[in-house]
TrEMBL record:
Gene3D superfamilies: 3.40.50.20, ATP-grasp fold, A domain, ATP-grasp fold, B domain. This is D-alanine--D-alanine ligase. HAMAP family: Dala_Dala_lig (MF_00047). Pathway: Cell wall biogenesis; peptidoglycan biosynthesis. Residues 105-312 form the ATP-grasp domain. Binds 2 magnesium or manganese ions per subunit. One of its GO terms (molecular function) is D-alanine-D-alanine ligase activity. PANTHER family: D-ALANINE--D-ALANINE LIGASE, D-ALANINE--D-ALANINE LIGASE B. Cell wall formation. The keyword ATP-binding applies. Keywords: ATP-binding, Cell shape, Cell wall biogenesis/degradation, Cytoplasm, Ligase, Magnesium, Manganese, Metal-binding, Nucleotide-binding, Peptidoglycan synthesis.
Length: 322
């Protein structure tokens, strides 16, 4: 095994997804943290030269900071597995499960987690059965308000909160812009929280929950990545018993999906203190305004130390076949 006191690390960032710019910002932050500890870091875009570069240089570990399909749907991870080089984050099968929001909801519900009632609609079904009759049936079954989102993807792209019947058709169009399958979910009213989960070898550890309060409207793409558009409370303003339930719900989801090393679990806490699972992110944003860095800081840990510990965990897991 490589000398883990001074690792040769390739940080992957960029890609061709809608979240390329966010990935580049995340990757630079990871690289800065690792560089500050004396590790040798190469910053690479996953382009046509990547696999040849990895085969020739064989770094100790790969640190993907790729958001969207290019880094989270499992395809690139499958290729990384074939190289035999350790990499940080979930393996292919788990990434594919989490990438599909309907699948993730089903698995978390089977593990005992609460998740809002929903309907999953492929674009073809929407067209074949007629938009008007489909939407009328959905409204009769789920009621209002609703959340409409692409069944795959992140950063709130294509997500709409629907409060009136007239808003639903446009929300479907917006969701289908980003994916061929849309998820229509009953909106749970409550406190929106995100929980970063890390595992450096001792089992999944839920960091302090981050409460999200957009200054105006919903927690949109712009609100996520532009400073000043969202208020974050770290830790979330929850009673101790509710905070414990939120942490348990996050680790339950992380485990049910078979995730590895790090994840971000998004939840809504209702008026009764029940945490409702919304979705899981296998590679959370790591920018200056992202949830996970805030949670790491709130836990009293250094960002660079955590990123290096995750790299070491990837090496250990590779050596033991995990």
């Amino acid at each position: 095994m490589a000398d883990i006191s001074a690792l040769d690390i390739v940080v992957l960032a960029g890609g061709i997804s809608h979240e390329r710019d966010i990935s580049l910002r995340s990757g630079r932050r990871v690289a800065d943290g690792l560089n500050s500890l004396g590790h040798t870091v190469s910053f690479r875009d996953p382009d046509a030269s990547l696999l040849g570069y990895l085969a020739e240089n064989r770094p100790d570990v790969i640190w993907p900071a790729l958001h969207g399909a290019s880094g989270e749907d499992g395809a690139l991870r499958a290729l990384l597995e074939q190289t035999g080089i350790p990499f940080v984050g979930s393996r292919t099968d788990a990434a594919r499960l989490a990438w599909s929001k309907p699948t993730a909801k089903t698995l978390v519900a089977r593990a005992g987690g609460a998740t809002p009632a929903s309907v999953t609609l492929p674009k073809e079904t929407f067209r074949e059965l007629g938009a008007n009759s489909v939407l009328a049936t959905v409204l009769a079954g789920l009621g209002l308000p609703l959340v409409v989102k692409p069944a795959q993807g992140g950063s709130a792209q294509g997500v709409t909160i629907v409060t009136t019947e007239d808003e639903l058709p446009r929300a479907m169009v917006d969701a289908y812009t980003y994916a061929d399958v849309a998820l229509i979910e009953r909106k749970v009213e409550g406190v929106e929280v995100s929980v970063a989960v890390i595992d450096t070898g001792d089992g999944p550890d839920a960091l302090p929950a981050v409460e999200i309060e957009p200054v105006e409207g919903a927690y949109t793409f712009n609100a996520r990545y532009n400073a000043g558009e969202t208020r974050f409370y770290v830790p979330a303003r929850l009673d101790d018993s509710v905070a414990a339930a939120v942490a348990e719900a996050a680790t339950t989801a992380h485990t049910a999906l078979g995730l590895r090393h790090l994840s971000r679990i998004d939840l809504i806490v209702d008026a009764d203190g029940v945490p409702w699972f919304l979705e899981a992110n296998v590679l959370p944003g790591l920018t200056e305004t992202s949830i996970m860095p805030q949670a790491i800081a709130a836990s009293g840990r250094d960002l660079g130390d955590v990123y290096a510990a995750l790299a070491r965990a990837a090496i250990e897991d590779s050596a033991t076949g995990l």
